[in-house]
Amino acid sequence: MNDSYVDKVLIVEGTSDKRKVKRIVKEPVEIICTNGTISITKLDELIDFLEDKDVYILVDADAAGEKLRKQFKREFPQAEHIYIDRAYREVATAPEHHLATVLLGANIDVHTQFLENC
């Protein structure tokens, strides 16, 4: 987690998700990667870190992603959940224009060139 202050934190599953989203997002957003699971210790650390931030959850549209999403709904009920189309299944393989659209829909500023294929 970064020491510099940011208002928005986006939680994703994998490093490939993080890389893809990082290219698309225009504003300063802390992107946290869970690597598909999250331990109780890590979750406790996150609770403290995320206390005064806008939290967004963007996970794959599969069983593992939904399990992680449920865990975050319990622990961070105030978090905004961003959903990709089930047809794409994974954040890392979803088209950039689709990700840009869903991120923009959650009020996360994106680079406009990623919206051009909409």
Automatic annotation (TrEMBL):
<protein>
    <submittedName>
        <fullName>Toprim domain-containing protein</fullName>
    </submittedName>
</protein>
<dbReference type="Pfam" id="PF01751">
    <property type="entry name" value="Toprim"/>
</dbReference>
<feature type="domain" description="Toprim">
    <location>
        <begin position="7"/>
        <end position="95"/>
    </location>
</feature>
<dbReference type="InterPro" id="IPR006171">
    <property type="entry name" value="TOPRIM_dom"/>
</dbReference>
<dbReference type="InterPro" id="IPR034141">
    <property type="entry name" value="TOPRIM_RNase_M5-like"/>
</dbReference>
